[in-house]
Specification:
Layout: E1 2-7, H1 14-22, E2 27-30, H2 31-38, H3 42-52, H4 65-72, H5 76-103, E3 108-112, E4 129-134, H6 137-146, H7 151-160, H8 164-170, E5 173-176, H9 181-195
Parallel strand pairs: 1-3, 1-4, 2-3, 4-5
Helix pairs in contact: 1-9, 2-5, 3-5
Length: about 200
């Protein structure tokens, strides 16, 4: 089963590209979603409580992601602490999902990966193809603000992500999303129609 990793900065259009592929029948994994899922595991909650304190939980004992983010992204050291707790669990869940899709005989899976760093030190070491979706910075900020984030939050998140130059270097395929969503969809589907002939 081919693993197609989809990377791109906040607001670049990863979800549009992913939907184009899943509409073609591909399985998919959103690693952000997997990250949210593992925050509900008791073992993860225990570790987070030890690292970041009780005030990142609500009255029901669930992680308040905004409160966790405020602490976990305050310094590089705090971010490393968060990653040490969550990344092994994310990898565990990711592996289970991949095994499930392989057992179902899926030809390919799209993996949406917003915190991609490089192909050597991340889940993407197993990627068959890394696809980058790029868009101009101001366009990305505008899109993210429209979807409900504050501009300050968007700029802070983007500042913590790798640059588009790094993404291009790490990628096999680059989609420039500086037009309409339909243009991006058509470009992605056109690529997939060619790529699937090689599977």
């Amino acid at each position: 089963m081919k693993k197609l990793f989809l990377i791109g900065g906040m607001g670049a259009g990863k979800s549009t590209a992913r939907k184009a592929l899943t509409d073609e029948g591909l399985a998919w994994i959103d690693l952000d979603q997997v990250g949210h899922e593992v925050l509900m595991w008791d073992t993860v909650k225990d570790d987070l409580r030890g690292a970041f304190g009780d005030d990142i939980f609500d009255e029901n004992g669930e992680v308040v992601r905004s409160a966790l983010a405020a602490k976990a992204f305050a310094t590089p050291a705090a971010t490393r602490k968060l990653n040490t707790i969550t990344m092994p669990r994310i990898e565990e869940r990711y592996t289970d999902l991949i095994d499930g899709f392989e057992a179902e005989g899926k030809p390919a899976v799209v993996v949406e990966y917003s915190v991609f760093r490089n192909r050597q030190q991340s889940l993407a070491y197993g990627a068959d193809v890394v696809m980058a979706v790029l868009a101009p910075l101001e366009v990305r900020i505008e899109r993210a603000v429209k979807s409900g984030f504050s501009e300050e939050d968007v700029r802070a998140r983007i500042a913590r992500q790798i640059t588009d130059a790094d993404r291009i270097e790490a990628s096999d395929v680059v989609f420039n999303n500086d037009g309409t969503p339909d243009e991006l969809r058509n470009e992605v589907i056109s690529w997939w129609n060619e790529y699937k002939k090689t599977i």
